[in-house]
Structure formats: C-alpha cells, structure tokens
Design a protein that fits this description.
By secondary structure, this protein is α/β, with parallel strands linked by helices. Helix content is about 25%, strand content about 20%.
C-alpha cells in the first residue's frame, strides 16, 4: 500500500465504527444441537468479534486501520482491546471503555459448513451521555459529532447499512472525501426497500450477499441483482459464497464474475467481512475489478479454514503460501496469476494470532 499512498494524504487508510463482541466459537460438531440433550464440541476458540472481524482483516492486509468502538468495562473488553490494539496494530484512539457496561457476547456453533449463533448484549450508551438509542444509533458507535476528527480523515471507510436507521458518520466521512464501501444486514422488517438505505447514495461500492441482493431488487438471480443495483450505486458487488462473486461497475459498464475457491470450511464466521476487506484493499491499490474480486474471494476462502472470526483472517504470508504451494500448481487458477506481481518480496513470517480456547489460558512451558 505504501507505493500507492499519496504524499500528504490521510494517515488513516480505513476508518470504521461499530460494536465489538467477544466471540466464543465451538467447532467439530457432527450436527446441530438437539433440544433436551448435551452436545460436545471437539474444538473451541475465543476471539474479538463483531466489527473486530472487519478491522482485523483490514489490518492484516496492511491497511492503516482506525476503529471507533465502545469496549466493555470487564475482562472480555480488556482482552478484545489488547488483541486489537497490541496484537493487530489497530488504532483505537477514537475508542473508549464504557464504565459499568459489559461486553456483548456471541456463541457460535459451526457444523456442516454453516454456523448457528446466539448473542447477548446491551447497546452502549451514547458517548456524550443519555439513554441508549436504536440499533442504527448504536451503529454510529463511538462517533462523536462534537469531535472535529471523528470520523478522522481517511482514504476510505467501511460501514454496514441498516434499513430505516441513518448513520450520520457515513455521510460525514463521504463529505470529507472518504471512499465509502458498505455491506448490509438482513432486513428484519421484511420490506427490503432500497430507499430505506439512507447512506446508499454516499457509497462507492455496495457489497450485499446474494440473498440480500435478490430481495432488495426483486430478482431471482445474483447476477441480475448486481445489474439492478448498479442503477443505485457506482459499483455493485454481489457475493455468492463458495460460488464466487459478481460485480457491475456502472461507471464503465464492466461486469465481471469470478468463481469461488474450493476449500473445506471449518468456520464461516466473519468470511463476509474478510471478503469486503480484500475488496477494499484491491480498490485502494487500484487493481482491475476482476483482480479485486478474485483477491477478495481468496482471502475469504482462506479465512474459513480457521476458526474464530477476526483471528481467522489471513495476512500476506498466508496468501503467498497458498499461491506458491496450491494456486500456482492447479489448473483453473489462472485468474490469480496477478499475485505473482503483487507478492514479490513477500517473505514468510511468524504465524498470525489465532483464537484461543479460553481467556487467560496458560499453555505448558
């Protein structure tokens, strides 16, 4: 990224805000838990989750990442903060710990290539005091409208759109010149109205999954959905899980599809976040659309082979190892040949931090 950063540009490559969860992931389940019985998992891991998934994926790809989030006033909050700040090098100067507020927690059970999650938490009170607001207001997270540097100057920002719940920080970031990349969650109202996504006009790229895209556009095909969405946003990217992704650039008329990478999925938690992080990286680096899609899909595929949400995200050494040991040796992977140019000089490094079974775990010396 250093080669494409403009002299005198923002110190921050990507800014984002949201809620940090503690994720506890159980793997190695043969089937979904059955009511009235006890199930034993063969694996377990704990790691920061929620918005931490995206922040970690961005940081591991070399992007200078700034996260504004509320952290719980407990051991979970301390653990998440240390992992993100000290372990991943994420700038948390705009984050804060909320006195008397406990960390949200998600328990995820991974089986048959999918996952089931149970979460608990309370919205953090606004930073300037007062009662907790709606989920959309919580999405503004640690955004402080009185602070002149929040959101900070950043080349890009990443958000998650919430139907009917405007997020002031996204509009503020766009006004300050940030390139806005956004995904969207499931519309619990069932209306699936694009007009309810107030920040969509501020977005350079919109990256829903296939189910979301088809419901928002009333189409029955992810590719048709991408074309329909391109009437509302400059760049529409529809993810299709193991089948790959499809994108339409309304500015140039270019439409590109790439297949997925065949891997055995251990835990899909955070895979969508890793895809967005990979796409943002390629976009800021100025890569062709096809290369951005392929790279994003690859990073997401590598992440599902590990468990633990944020700490499953790959870095450049893992990407280089896949290309040199697997991708470059397999027929049908020619669309990843651009990695030869990008990975020049990428040497092996220490293994990345991964999810740990429990907090404070002391392995034998």
């Amino acid at each position: 990224m250093a080669a494409v950063r403009e002299p005198g540009g923002p110190d921050c490559d990507v800014y984002l805000t949201g809620t940090v969860f503690l994720d506890i992931v159980f793997t190695g389940l043969d089937a979904a838990p059955v009511r009235g019985t006890e199930s034993w998992a063969r694996g377990m891991g704990s790691s920061p989750g929620g918005i931490a998934n995206m922040a970690t994926a961005l940081a591991r790809l070399g992007l200078r990442t700034s996260l504004a989030a509320a952290f719980g006033d407990d051991m979970y909050g301390d653990y998440c903060r240390e992992e993100l700040e000290s372990g991943e090098g994420i700038d948390l100067s705009l984050s804060h710990t909320v006195p008397g507020w406990h960390s949200p927690v998600t328990v995820s059970m991974a089986y048959e290539g999918e996952r089931t999650m149970i979460s608990h938490g309370h919205e953090a009170p606004p930073r300037n005091g007062g009662a907790a607001g709606t989920a959309g207001e919580a999405a503004d997270g640690a955004y402080d409208p009185e602070a002149p540097e929040c959101p900070p100057p950043a080349t890009a920002c990443v958000g998650s759109l919430v139907p009917g719940r405007p997020q002031k920080w996204i509009a503020a970031a766009a006004r300050r010149g940030s390139r806005v990349f956004a995904d969207v969650g499931w519309d619990e109202t069932g209306r699936w109205d694009l007009a309810a996504l107030a920040e969509l006009p501020h977005c350079e790229a919109f990256l829903p999954n296939a189910a979301e895209a088809m419901r928002y556009t009333g189409t029955d095909c992810p590719r048709a959905a991408a074309h329909a969405l391109s009437a509302h946003v400059p760049l529409a990217v529809v993810t299709m899980g193991p089948e790959g992704a499809y994108a339409v650039d309304a500015r140039t008329g270019e439409a590109v599809g790439v297949p997925g990478v065949a891997v055995e999925a251990l835990d899909t938690t955070g895979a969508g976040d890793v895809f967005v992080a990979g796409f943002v990286t390629g976009s800021l680096a100025g890569w062709p659309l096809a290369d951005r899609l392929a790279f994003a899909g690859l990073t997401a595929a590598l992440s599902v082979q590990e468990f633990g949400g944020s700490l499953s995200a790959p870095g450049w050494p893992e990407i280089a190892a896949w290309w040199r040991q697997v991708g470059s040796q397999q027929p049908g992977c020619g669309h990843y040949a651009f990695l030869d140019r990008i990975l020049t000089g990428c040497a092996a490094s220490a293994p990345p931090r991964r999810a740990v079974p429990t907090l404070g775990f002391r392995p034998p010396e």
